[in-house]
Specification:
One of its GO terms (molecular function) is transcription coregulator activity. Helix content is 24%, strand content 17%. Strands 4-9-11-10 form a four-stranded mixed β-sheet, with no helix packed on it. Strands 5-14-15-8 form a four-stranded mixed β-sheet, covered by helices on one side. β14 and β15 form a beta hairpin.
Length: 378
């Protein structure tokens, strides 16, 4: 119900909102015989169009529904615009709202924000800086055949005994690969992040010379020569646009998460954890929920962490398990391992069992050095 406004109160509201003209402490002197000039009053529609926050609140909001999907269900996810007073589900607006906003919130139309549109093939190639080849189809076919031949040459017993890393098998359908990369590009754009498939050493943070595996205090594995070749092969495939068969999807409970778009074998390389490298002492009070230990040193001032808050890749969206419950532990299908790669520290995500298509990826956030609190994880 719209409350009624008197002409005097409406006029006072207009004077308060009219910040362009300075206020006067004394009225100008006019002869008593002169009548004040008539002033044209603005309509309420004009005022609401220019004002930032003008909402005529209703007594009952039970009939509010989402403007995008038309449903009034899931009222705990329904946001009301502070300007137009219309309802929107958190995952129906574009870009998606991951958390309930603190303070005022405006819908994309009222805020003037551009919608996050679907990425075309050209935009995806530019976004990931894919290196174009003369014949992408032949390159993909040859790389896939090389991976299959490599798997055939290694017997099952030898593979289980040595636990060698396996390169991922990209989807053979180019349209599926574009869909997979498009989902990652949308998630990164929503969080206002840049894509980076390598560690970044920025000014004011740790330098590359600080990332020396020899400083590690005993919790790092050495990458074998064969596994190092697998890592380089996967990096080369990523540069050509041959990504792992993974999709980034949005869940109302878990936010952005990653699920397999095809079957993934045990010990398959998933992704390298990337982002800005910084000293742990600089990030002790950081609210980033995805920091990863890179280098653990006896001297805490020299320990390093990876911070994917401004730059990162798909590893940023793989969620952790609740390792305090049996159900949570059963969901783990990946493992995060820190490796010594040519003298530098690297963090790699590896599958620890066969992952079926449509299954979401989870790993344990806890490292060997401390217990990460995961009681609140789904």
């Amino acid at each position: 119900m719209t409350p009624a406004f008197s002409s005097s109160s409406a006029a006072s509201q207009r004077l308060i909102r009219c910040s362009a003209s300075p206020r006067r402490t004394h009225a100008p002197h006019r002869p008593s015989s002169m009548s004040p000039p008539l002033r044209k009053l603005k309509s309420m529609t004009e005022i609401m169009a220019k004002a930032k926050h003008v909402v005529l609140e209703r007594e009952d909001y039970d009939d509010v529904s989402c403007e995008e999907c038309g449903s009034g269900d899931r009222d705990d996810e329904l946001l009301l615009c502070d300007k137009c007073d219309k309802g929107f589900h958190m995952k129906c607006v574009s870009p998606i709202v991951v958390r309930v906003p603190i303070g005022s919130w405006l819908c994309p139309k009222c805020s003037g924000q551009r919608r996050v549109r679907s990425f075309s093939q050209k935009k995806i190639i530019d976004f990931f800086r894919i290196q174009k080849c003369k014949d992408d189809g032949d390159v993909l076919y040859l790389s896939a055949q090389a991976i299959k031949r490599r798997r055939r040459l290694r017997s099952l017993v030898w593979q289980k005994k040595r636990r060698r890393l396996l390169p991922f098998l990209p989807s053979e359908d180019p349209d599926r690969r574009l869909k997979q990369m498009g989902s990652l590009a949308t998630a990164l754009t929503t969080l206002q992040m840049e894509f980076s498939d390598d560690l970044t050493y920025g000014p004011g943070m740790a330098s590359r010379s600080a990332n020396q595996a020899e400083f590690e205090d005993g919790g790092m594995q050495v990458l074998s020569k064969e596994d190092a070749e697998t890592l380089e092969l996967c990096r080369a495939m990523n540069r050509r646009g041959e990504c792992p068969p993974l999709l980034v999807v949005f869940d109302s409970c878990e936010g952005f998460t990653v699920e397999a778009d095809d079957q993934i074998k045990d010990m398959t390389f998933i992704a390298e954890y990337t982002g800005d490298v910084d000293y742990l002492k600089n990030r002790e009070h950081d609210d980033c929920d995805s920091m990863m230990t890179l280098l653990s040193v006896k001297d805490p001032s020299r320990s390093l962490v990876i911070c994917p808050d401004t730059r990162g890749n798909i590893a940023r969206f793989i969620n952790g398990i609740n390792n305090h419950s049996p159900e949570g532990k059963k969901k783990q299908n990946c493992k995060c391992v820190r490796y010594n790669v040519n003298g530098e520290c690297r963090v790699i995500l590896v599958a620890i069992r066969d992952i079926a298509k449509g299954e979401r990826l989870y790993y344990d956030y806890n490292g060997y050095e401390y217990e990460y609190p995961t009681h609140h994880f789904v």
